[in-house]
Design a protein that fits this description.
heterodimer, A: 289 residues, two-stranded parallel sheet, 12 helices, B: mainly alpha, two-stranded antiparallel ribbon
């Protein structure tokens, strides 16, 4: 209960006192100012105690716990990247990107859009030496995909297949081995090597199931089965299956073929614009099988 | 700036190879022309070096799309690999036969061996293997499911059995406990004070009691027997008397 005079005195004082700040009030200070260990009371061992490794700046390795099994050894290892160097990758190309490419003439929708066409557009790059075995087509933009295309990719989900077929196109999933991929990705560079076009290999055992399955439109599947699956898929997703006429939308490569119009074993010369065939019977038989 | 072509060697400027070549080009002067004998008029003109770029020979050729020269410096270009590339880049004008492109015998054999190891199965075989694997997996799943279904049928029964077992055990325990308590009570009544069951006296007393009970049981049995015998005897005498009585009456 301050008196009137006391209150007035306090107020008068306040006018002359400095602003309240941390440096003029009593408050807990968690980080006391570090003081140099110097002088009479900080000297001699300077906070290091007597002898010992610490005083001699010869500390044990990081993580050492005086002999107790250290934390970094005690905790069991986990291998999140185990086998990552053996996994095969399929870089994505979305339906939205594909539609854009078609609309901006980066890719010709009048022919089959395969790996080579997508790479030639300049927008996508495939590195087979980094275990990238082709493109997968993703469902982003599947609602707005309207162009009938003849698409050949290495992996596609059911929804994507439905979207492409609803637009009146066809889609195939095909396998290319490493040598074929290197030819596909940059044909010009491949032809400058002066080696014959390779024969495409069959898919490995664990991929055979996918590429012989008509429900995934595998290139080795029975065409009749594929037609049936087209119908059932249309029924499943509830769209009218458009008629697909024989023509650019139905042209397919042979399972051993890489380029349209060129067979395995042929030698192409870009300078002379010539194509040479094999005459040797053994080689010819191998390349044609 | 030091003009190109002049190399400092030990502080003394010297002309480098290229500059020397440039410097050694034939340059005709007015004086020379006057002294030319008439004999040179019919001879062909000396070759004019058109390479004013100063590029190296191989570089000039590459730039102008000419095939490379293969000599002791570029001996590596004699390899099949290099020959194939030269043919591919420059065509038949190189004089290289297209046949170099296809594999030679050794390469072919290696290729065939590799393929036989890397792709041992035909497509049909691979498909069959795949189908077999799929079927095996499905069968394994089906087997497990069937086993589980069979067990589920008996589940209620087993539950009841287990519960019954448990309850029986409990009951037995309870009965034993009760019997134990009853015995203690009986012994207590017999003696007048409580004896701990683990006490040796307890056992003695129990034994005593058992003996007494046996005795009593024996006696009871004996009595029963006697009673039975008596009853029988009475009956027999009654019968005998009945037989005699009618005779007497007569």
């Amino acid at each position: 209960m301050a008196s009137r005079a006391g209150q007035e005195k306090a107020l008068r004082l306040l006018r002359h006192l400095p602003r309240v700040a941390l440096n003029n009030i009593d408050h807990p200070n968690p980080k006391p100012a570090s003081r140099r260990k110097r002088g009479a009371h900080g000297g001699d061992t300077h906070g290091a105690g007597d002898k010992g490794s610490k005083a001699r700046q010869h500390f044990a390795r990081a993580g050492f716990e005086g002999g107790q099994t250290p934390f970094y050894i005690r905790i069991p290892r986990e291998d999140p990247y185990k086998g990552h160097h053996l996994r095969w990758e399929y870089p994505p190309v979305s339906l939205h990107q594909l539609q854009l490419m078609v609309d901006t003439d980066r890719v010709d929708a009048g022919r089959q859009i395969d790996l080579t066409q997508i790479c030639n557009s300049g927008l996508f790059r495939l590195e087979p030496l980094r275990r990238q075995f082709g493109f997968q087509i993703t469902d982003e933009g599947m609602d707005e995909f309207v162009t009938p295309v003849n698409l050949e990719v290495q992996w596609a989900s059911e929804r994507v297949i439905a979207a492409v077929e609803r637009a009146g196109g066809t889609i195939t999933t095909a396998f290319y081995d490493m040598a074929s991929l290197q030819a596909m990705v940059d044909p010009e560079r491949f032809f400058k090597r002066g080696v014959p076009i390779p024969r495409r290999a069959l898919p490995p055992q664990d991929a055979v199931g996918y590429y012989t399955d008509p429900s995934t439109r595998g290139y080795l599947a029975d065409p009749e089965q594929v037609a049936r699956h087209r119908l059932t898929l249309a029924q499943k997703y509830g769209y009218e299956l458009p008629e697909v006429k024989e023509g650019p939308l139905t042209e397919r490569k042979d399972p051993r073929q890489i380029f349209f119009g060129l067979e395995p074993g042929w030698l192409v010369n870009l300078t002379d614009k010539q194509v040479w065939r094999v005459k040797d019977p053994v080689m010819s038989e191998y390349f044609r099988s | 700036m030091v003009p190109v072509g002049i190399v400092r060697a030990g502080g003394v400027p010297r002309l480098c190879g290229r500059a020397l070549r440039l410097a050694s080009r034939p340059v005709s002067t007015a004086a020379d022309q006057d002294d030319q004998p008439a004999v040179t008029a019919g001879l062909p003109a000396p070759p004019v070096n058109t390479n004013v770029s100063g590029l190296r020979d191989w570089h000039y050729r590459k730039y102008h799309g000419k095939q490379p020269v293969v000599d002791e410096e570029t001996a590596h270009m004699r390899s099949l690999r290099a020959q194939r590339r030269i043919w591919a880049l420059y065509g038949t004008k190189t004089g290289i036969s297209p046949a170099v492109g296809w594999p030679v015998k050794k390469e072919w054999e290696d290729k065939m061996e590799y393929e036989s190891l890397a792709y041992p199965d035909t497509l049909q075989e691979m498909v069959q293997k795949h189908e077999a694997e799929k079927r095996a997996k499905e069968e394994a799943i089906k087997e497990r499911m069937d086993a589980v279904d069979a067990k589920m049928e008996n589940l209620e029964k087993w539950k009841r059995e287990i519960l019954e077992k448990k309850r029986k055990k409990e009951r037995e325990l309870q009965a034993a406990k009760e019997k134990h308590d009853r015995l203690i009570e009986e012994v207590k009544e017999y003696l007048g004070f409580k004896v701990d069951s683990k006490d040796p006296r307890f056992k003695e007393i129990l034994e005593k009691k058992e003996l007494e009970e046996k005795k009593r049981a024996k006696e009871a049995k004996k009595k029963e027997k006697q009673a039975k015998a008596l009853a029988k005897l009475r009956q027999m005498t009654n019968e005998m008397m009945e037989k005699e009585m009618p005779a007497e009456k007569e």
